[in-house]
Write a structure and sequence with these properties.
Layout (H helix, E strand, L loop, with lengths): L1 E7 L4 H4 L13 H13 L7 E4 L3 H13 L7 E3 L16 H8 L1 H9 L32 H21 L4 E5 L1 H12 L17 E5 L5 E4 L4
The structure holds 2-phosphoglyceric acid (2PG).
Family: Belongs to the phosphoglycerate mutase family. BPG-dependent PGAM subfamily.
Organism: Companilactobacillus kimchiensis
Protein name: 2,3-bisphosphoglycerate-dependent phosphoglycerate mutase
Length: 223
């Protein structure tokens, strides 16, 4: 039996303002910092052989808090753009209620939760500086559906996480709402339609116990 734990970052400043975030690089609120500590408390006694996170600081700070609380600061951590939140395109930074008023509740639900809906795109991709300076500019997105994000998230899981799990090494992923929804879809084999109803709370660890073929033995996701 091996453990895979996934944690969505604590509340971010954009979450508190009810803004679309995506690749905006915002920090945690005080409440978000508390949520990261609470997540760590729930994981007390566990150990991980590797930590995986995005290049966005809300996830990185949450991962560091958890590592620190568990005295696992020495554990290797990989920060990858592949675990970034889904890119929200031209919606990022906009208040979600404003878009409900402008485009209607159903359209906003589609943008937020359907597997294939692509939010309005940026006119051009962001410059690849800061966390993206090691990144090929040709793959900077202008907006992503969950399906498009899934195409870059799952190869990371298959190449970098699953082999360590198959080797009996417990893994921690600290990421984002949509990143974790994509991973849940893959790990639990959830249909394109049913992924619409799955929400991931800030700072609530999802703990999967997997067998030696990575089939699920137990999970707390629906508790
Ligand atoms: O804004 C975002 O990037 C995400 C997660 O916070 O929001 P939503 O739940 O609306 O997809």
């Amino acid at each position: 039996m091996v453990k895979l734990v996934m944690v969505r970052h604590g509340e971010s400043i954009a979450n508190a303002l009810n803004q679309y975030t995506g690749w905006n690089n915002v920090g945690l609120t005080q409440e978000g910092i508390v949520q990261a500590h609470v997540a760590a408390e729930k994981l007390k006694g566990m150990s991980f052989d590797h930590v995986h996170t995005s290049v966005l600081k809300r996830a990185i700070i949450t991962a560091y808090i958890i590592q620190d609380e568990l005295n696992l600061n020495y554990v290797p951590i990989t920060k990858t753009w592949r675990l970034n939140e889904r890119h929200y395109g031209a919606l990022r930074g906009i208040n979600k209620d404003e878009t409900r008023r402008e485009y209607g509740v159903e359209q906003v639900h589609q943008w937020r939760r359907s597997f294939y809906s692509i939010p309005p795109q940026l006119e051009q991709p962001d410059p690849n500086v800061g966390p993206y300076k090691y990144f090929d500019a040709r793959i900077m997105p202008v907006a992503e559906s969950l399906y498009q994000a899934y195409q870059r998230i799952i190869p990371y899981y298959v190449d970098q996480v699953a082999p360590l799990l198959l080797d009996g090494k417990d893994q921690l992923i600290v990421a984002h709402g949509s990143t974790i929804r994509a991973l849940i879809k893959y790990i639990e084999n959830i249909s394109d339609e049913d992924i619409d109803g799955i929400e991931v709370a800030n700072g609530k660890p999802l703990i999967y116990e997997l067998d030696n073929k990575l089939n699920i033995i137990s999970s707390n996701r629906t508790e």
